[in-house]
Specification:
- This protein has 304 residues and is α/β, with parallel strands linked by helices.
- The chain has a domain of 182 residues: Alpha-Beta Complex (2-enoyl-CoA Hydratase, Chain A, domain 1).
- Strands 1, 2, 4, 5, 6, 7, 8 and 9 form an 8-stranded mixed sheet that branches.
- The radius of gyration is 27 Å and the shape is flat.
- 28% of the residues are buried.
Amino acid sequence: MAYDSDYLVDRRRLKRRLTFWRVVAVVAIVGAIAAAYGRVGDTVVGGDFIARVSIQGIIVQDDRRLAALRDLSKNDAVKAVILRIDSPGGTIVGGETLYRAILDLAAKKPVVAVMDGVAASAAYMTAIAADRLFAREGTLTGSVGVILQTTEITKLLDMIGVSARSFKSGSLKASPSPVERLTPEAEAATQALIDEMYGMFRDMVLDRRNMKPADEARFADGRVFTGRQALKNGLIDEIGGETEAITWLENEKDVRKDLTVRKVNLRRDVDNLFDRLDSLARKTILSERLTLDGLISVWHPQLR
């Protein structure tokens, strides 16, 4: 009986050890897959394909997204890229850097932009870097312009008996400011800033849409267009979606008809988790609009 007891104990120990090492092996395999996925996203699964890249939400500077776009340009398996855009815009710098990254990508791969619900302001800036622009009839796009908002509460402070003083090195330092009256000098300097950045945006549109300077009148007032209006004014190329975009790639860029379309994750899942938590915290505590520092190019009905 003693022998049988020892035998049973040894078997149980052996089973526990086997279970432990099986778990370790599974964790190691999952970790290796996750690490590989984090480096190259969905682009590792064999064969040539068309990459689908989603640009959604507020556009800001995103170094990881820029790095992912550079990786796509170097990946020989990627034969074309479809940008699915659904964004009201974002910061000028965010739109500019994304625009230039897509220009670099388009120099190596055919790139088409498919606008979904909204592709306005900095999102439209992003889209025009593509070789061809598609939108639905009801897509909201355009809104070519730049905005900087401020408030002035000096009269309110006077009413409640509060005064605010600023000591600064120059008269235009930190202007416009909510606690200072807007002087003609500060107003002119701020408007010059807006005009400069609008000029950059305007030149992008004229260049990429093959327009003449006189054509600026089509979008100079910053209005938003439906897809049908955008087509009429030369801001997009065609009414349609991803199906029409793929057909154009096949007919005009000699992209093979048998290629599959794969969604490419521009961020690792672990990054997305932290970003979602950060976004939730921001939306809970502050309006997301208030987290956009500097000049913005964003369409939002509440801003008008």
